[in-house]
């Protein structure tokens, strides 16, 4: 089996990243056993199943199924580096955390946690639409039903590895069939509509990243049905790594802010804005760490 090694950057924890990906929500897009992560993705060189594990001061990526030449290995190395945000130095963020007595514990408690992303903007938006106004457990169930019905699958070593369905496939999804999966009619319409927007070129990663600022990126996304402010900000944060894309109104974020004594009431927008202003350029990371704290401090 062909492998490639990625040097682990300073202030990085594969274990913390695995924790985030393995929170007992039955995610159908990867499999974790012990300290090993296995995933299938579509590459320019064909569908591939690969495995990630720690090896000393490196992450070792092993191609398990599919084309495994040099170009594929380089593509996988870039994918994993982006997925775990490994090219970014997060020490400046830790310096800011250490200046706040309420948050300084995070640099040890969650040391090395990276903002684990969603590489594909279409998938990120669909995931947001799936999760609107329902709890996470049910959202993951809906995602599994959608992926198993419309996505591609690779069998390896008696396990099925799924790939999120493409816009081309979901544009032709059946609303009646999605309703049978327990999608609301509106969510089914939104997902199909967003898929058509990607096919037509009305939305694309290139279009959004070419816009001059966060406000224009947000405006471009919310102009499409099914994408509100929370969905736009979450997708910008998780897929395009926009640093100040705070998913305002997120229940988990509000719980974490309240639990740390930063706000007394969920409506205190000015206090929230003032708090985040002290972390300019790291707002998305701060949001991610506050979400992480919900488990560690049992604030929810």
Describe this protein's structure:
It is a single chain. The model has no long low-confidence stretch (mean pLDDT 95). The strands form 2 sheets. Strands 1-5-4-3-2 form a 5-stranded antiparallel sheet, with helices on one face. A two-stranded antiparallel sheet has the order 6-7. Among the domains are: 3-86, DNA-3-methyladenine glycosylase AlkA, N-terminal domain (TATA-Binding Protein, 2-Layer Sandwich), CATH 3.30.310; 121-238, Hypothetical protein, domain 2 (Endonuclease III, domain 1). The protein has 300 residues and is α+β, with helices and mostly antiparallel strands. It has 15 helices and 7 strands. Helices cover 48% and strands 15% of the residues.
Q: Can you describe this structure in just a few lines?
A:
By secondary structure, the chain is of the alpha+beta class. It is 48% helix and 15% strand.
Furnish the topology, listing elements before pairings:
Blueprint: E1 3-7, H1 14-21, E2 31-33, E3 36-43, E4 46-55, E5 58-65, H2 70-83, H3 91-98, H4 106-109, H5 121-131, H6 136-150, E6 152-156, E7 159-163, H7 167-170, H8 175-180, H9 185-200, H10 205-210, H11 214-222, H12 229-238, H13 251-259, H14 269-277, H15 283-296
Antiparallel strand pairs: 1-5, 2-3, 3-4, 4-5, 6-7
């Amino acid at each position: 089996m062909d492998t490639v090694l990625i040097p682990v950057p300073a202030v990085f924890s594969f274990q913390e990243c695995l924790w985030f990906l393995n929170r007992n929500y039955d995610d159908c897009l990867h499999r974790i056993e012990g300290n090993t992560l296995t995933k299938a993705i579509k590459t320019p060189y064909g569908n591939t199943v690969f495995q990630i594990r720690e090896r000393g001061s490196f992450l070792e990526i092993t191609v398990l199924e599919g084309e495994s030449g040099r170009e594929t290995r380089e593509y996988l190395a870039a994918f994993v580096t982006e997925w775990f945000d490994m090219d970014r130095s997060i020490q400046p963020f830790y310096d800011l955390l250490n200046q706040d007595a309420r948050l300084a514990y995070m640099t040890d408690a969650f040391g090395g946690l990276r903002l684990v992303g969603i590489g594909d903007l279409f998938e990120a938006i669909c995931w947001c639409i799936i999760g609107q106004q329902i709890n996470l457990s049910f959202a993951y169930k809906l995602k599994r039903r959608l992926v198993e019905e419309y996505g591609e699958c690779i069998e390896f070593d008696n396990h099925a590895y799924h790939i999120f369905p493409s816009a081309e496939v979901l544009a032709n999804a059946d609303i009646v069939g999605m309703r049978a999966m327990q999608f609301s009619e509106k969510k089914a319409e939104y997902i199909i509509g967003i898929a058509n927007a990607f096919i037509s070129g009305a939305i694309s990663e290139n279009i959004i990243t070419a816009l001059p600022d966060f406000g224009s990126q947000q405006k471009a996304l919310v102009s499409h049905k099914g994408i509100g402010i929370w969905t736009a900000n979450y997708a910008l944060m998780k897929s395009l790594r926009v640093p100040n894309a705070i998913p305002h109104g997120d229940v988990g974020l509000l719980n974490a802010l309240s639990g740390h004594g930063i706000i007394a009431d969920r409506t205190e927008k000015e206090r929230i804005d003032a708090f985040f202003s002290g972390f300019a350029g790291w707002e998305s990371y701060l949001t991610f760490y506050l979400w992480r704290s919900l488990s560690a401090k049992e604030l929810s």
